[in-house]
Amino acid sequence: MKKGLTLSLLLGASLFAANLSSAIEIPDASKIIQKDLLAPVGIDKMPDKCVTNDPKAIARGSYIFHNLNGGSAEGDAPEGLSKKLPDGQEKQYGNCVACHNIEKAVGGGNVGPDLTAYNEMFIKSGVRDAQYVYQKIADPRADNPNTNMTVNLTTKMFNEREICDIASYVISVK
Q: What is the pTM (predicted TM-score) of this model?
């Protein structure tokens, strides 16, 4: 009897419960999705004199390659690179070493291609050129629409000079 009474009371209370659905904010998911979508694939022409043997450019590229963000980046940022953005937020670096192995890598990854001796194996042999490396860093979707690599120029994570610095580092003889 008690069970039946409890069930009746619950059922009766639910019939008179207030409809609170209008009190819950339901965002327009289509707007959120549109904001998060990447721009179309960009085929990016490498700027003139982009890849260089300049030790300062290579040092900046190495720093970006081996660090995740300004707050946890080890040591001082090399000349021409800051740990902070103009608005004071931490600069996001590449942390390329999380997926790619390269000379002197600490914790070098094995998800992406091994970049050790890249100059010797790919540049000197003519299999790849600086434009290829620049494009791979700028927007790797150009030749692999299903890539897991970060899209750096399209998302403005890096500017052209930073991509040139990373490419200079990858291509450099270490």
A: 0.79
